[in-house]
Design goal:
Distance between the termini: 27 Å
Helix content: 25-40%
Strand order of the largest sheet: 1-6-7-5
CATH superfamily of the largest domain: MutM-like, N-terminal
Number of helices: 7
Shape: elongated
Order of helices and strands: HEHEEEEEEEHHHHHEEEE
Number of strands: 12
Structural class: alpha+beta
Length: about 270
């Protein structure tokens, strides 16, 4: 699933070509992506509106629109295989296209999703504010401090990995970067957050920020779609994720995996205590 760096990369890639564009027509090619909202009403509301700011909150891509009536924001969650692409001719879209926002010159913004798990919803500003209020702080924001993390950890009995992936705790972190941050901080993914002492909290905070900053830099330049980068390979060194049975790059022990929250967690049994 695209995580914070990948979602940020998509926003940056489409921002210049989408912001300021008039939506001449909107087509929802798979009605289920808007449920429980009506796809027909979504199409009707979007048509004739102008795209404003494009930004990200957590794993959500947010596209502001203005026009008749109050401003509305299109909220898109990519899920496993979703992507947003600018097409020179929005009439010629791939089979995986689920939504097309066509501009007056026939170009357009297209939401593609081969597994059709992504979701598209239209909100008023008040609705959006209520939804986003459920998310934790952005891990690269000023609100995400060591003191905040320590306070959140002290009141939480969750295992460290599940804590990091809980979007109500920290917005945008997912399986890959949570595993890598825990390895860098030397924390076992099953360790209860409230048992961590301040030095470990500080190490975890520093690891999250460092890893995400580096990942955003690489991903913004190379990311094209889920599982594919512009270069021959992803130039971001994964030290535990996906390396089960391989030697730890620090101590040489074999990397292990376990199931947490229905997902595979990778860790080094010697480096992470």
């Amino acid at each position: 699933m695209p995580e914070l760096p990948e979602v940020e990369a998509v926003c940056r890639r489409i921002r210049r070509g989408a912001e300021g564009q008039l939506i001449a027509s909107a087509r929802i090619l798979r009605p289920g992506i808007t449920l429980p909202q009506s796809s027909a009403e979504t199409e009707e509301t979007l048509a004739g509106r102008r795209i404003g700011k494009v930004w990200r909150r957590g794993k959500n891509i947010l596209i502001g629109t203005s026009g008749a009536g109050e401003d509305r924001v299109l909220r898109i969650h990519l899920r496993m295989t979703g992507n947003l692409v600018l097409f020179k001719d929005a009439r010629l879209v791939p089979p995986a296209a689920r939504m097309v926002l066509e501009f007056p010159d026939r170009s357009g913004l297209v939401f593609t999703d081969s597994r059709a798990l992504g979701r598209v919803h239209l909100h008023s500003l008040a609705e959006l504010e209520s939804i986003l209020a459920e998310l934790g702080p952005e891990p690269l924001s000023r609100q995400f401090t060591v003191q905040w993390l320590a306070a959140a950890a002290s009141a939480c009995g969750q295992p460290a990995k599940l804590f990091l992936m809980d979007q109500s705790r920290i917005a945008g972190l997912g399986n890959i970067y949570a595993a890598e941050a825990l390895f860098q901080a030397g924390i076992h993914p099953g360790k209860r957050m409230k048992t961590l002492r301040m030095p470990k909290i500080g190490a975890l905070h520093a690891a999250i920020v460092d890893i995400l900053r580096r990942a955003v830099k690489v991903t913004a330049a190379e990311y094209r779609r889920p599982g594919y980068w512009g270069g021959e390979e992803w130039d971001f060194p994964l030290r535990v994720y996906g390396r089960k049975g391989e030697p730890c790059l620090v101590c040489g022990s074999k990397i292990r995996s376990m199931r947490q929250g229905g997902r595979s967690t990778y860790y080094c049994p010697r480096c992470q205590r």
